[in-house]
Write a structure and sequence with these properties.
The chain is α/β, with parallel strands linked by helices. Helix content is 39%, strand content 14%. It contains twelve helices and twelve strands.
Length: 380
């Protein structure tokens, strides 16, 4: 099967796999144990923390290891709210945030917080800075804005948002899960916290991390936790952390080459879909605000799930949006953020490219999509 769902998850890089096996064999000790075997694992754990911090240009003291993006989002939001710089219970977020963000904010709303949800601009798939400024209140203590959308690949103006937040004494959490390993992340040190997940950049599943500005004196959500300076319970997964670090090194070293390749493949795909251009809507931002490896589109009058299932039958794996949204009856968060609802929202299809995508596979995928659409439109 030809894989076009890299935004959902990536296969593990062979080098990362080797590191995982090596660490699992030679560094099996509990990093919190006081004996030498535990100490050996602890040394490796801290070396990984320092290396990841170096890649991101952040302080190692603010980097914590978690089970992945969803846990990181939750822990970051709770940590920031435990030490807000001013009083208030107002939060600003985008409608297009990941389901783990929406779940956390829904719980907070039951506890008395109020959230203002901002839409995406229909023409670009990013939020309006004017709308963001207008949403700020005296009691606004937190903003939650993802860096790159997992369904559209649109990149939010995090640097500008961070500057606005700083000027208004507001903490900013950003979900970096889709952008980590795909962008230089020069804004990493500007936000109050950010999350990432290894399986999005060819590392193992079940491991990720969260950065929380070391100047913030957060309080633990889980009482009595001792791991990761009390941020979370659970024994540190040293082999997975080592493999994630190796995957991150490879991803950051290949950033420029990969992005050039994805841009070429994206244009090839769009070009090959020319025969159905009259029915196709591509939701994207300008080139500088777009991850080239994610293509979010709709085909008028045809449900994305039908196209996805037909492609699956023909040996191609694509998706109808975030894998964490599958099973929900509501439209994808990206479609809601764009103001698209009803039958049109169900037309959404996501194609995401990766390290092992080849030109011939792109051409074959496009040909199959064209055949499916023309058959549905009964055009020969």
């Amino acid at each position: 099967m030809k894989y076009f769902d890299y935004a959902a998850t990536c296969p593990m890089d062979p080098e990362a796999s080797k590191v995982y096996v090596k660490a699992a064999s030679d560094y099996f000790g509990n990093a919190s144990s006081l004996h030498d075997i535990g100490g050996k694992s602890s040394v490796l754990l801290e070396q990984c923390r320092e290396e990841l911090a170096r890649l991101l240009g952040i302080e190692p003291a603010g980097l914590y290891f978690t089970s992945g993006g969803s846990e990181s989002n939750f822990l970051a939001i709770e940590a920031l709210l435990s030490d807000t710089p001013k009083k208030g219970k107002h939060i600003i977020a985008s409608i297009g945030e990941h389901s783990s963000i929406h779940g956390t904010l829904a719980r907070l709303e039951k506890a008395g917080y109020e959230t203002t949800y901002l839409p995406f601009m229909p023409t670009s798939g990013v939020i309006s800075l004017e709308d963001f400024r207008a949403a700020i209140r005296e009691e606004t203590v937190l903003a939650v804005i993802q860096h790159a959308n997992s369904e559209l690949g649109t990149i939010q103006p995090i640097k500008s948002i961070a500057e606005i937040c700083k000027a208004n004494n507001i903490y900013l959490h950003s979900d970096f899960v889709q952008s980590f390993g795909k962008l230089p992340l020069r804004s990493a040190e500007l936000v109050s916290s950010f999350s990432f997940s290894a399986h999005k950049f060819y590392g193992p599943k079940g491991i990720g991390g969260v950065y929380i500005d070391p100047s913030i004196t957060w309080k633990p959500f889980f009482p009595g936790s001792t791991h990761e300076k009390g941020l979370r319970p659970g024994t540190s997964n040293v082999p997975a952390i080592a493999a994630m670090t190796a995957a991150a090194q490879l991803a950051f070293s290949a950033l420029e080459k990969d992005n050039i390749n994805y841009k070429q493949l994206r244009q090839l795909l769009i070009g090959e879909l020319e025969p159905i251009k009259a029915w196709m809507s591509i939701h994207e931002a300008s080139e500088k605000s777009q991850l080239p490896g994610i293509l979010g589109l709709r085909i008028a009058g045809i449900e994305g799930q039908y196209v996805m299932l037909e492609l699956n039958r023909k040996g191609f794996a694509v998706s109808t949006g975030s894998a964490c949204h599958v099973g929900l009856h509501s439209p994808s968060k990206a479609m809601q953020a764009l103001g698209i609802s009803g039958k049109e929202a169900k037309e959404f299809l996501r194609i995401s490219l990766g390290r092992f995508t080849e030109k011939k596979d792109i051409i074959q995928l496009a040909q199959e999509i064209v055949l499916i659409v023309l058959a549905m439109k009964k055009i020969s």
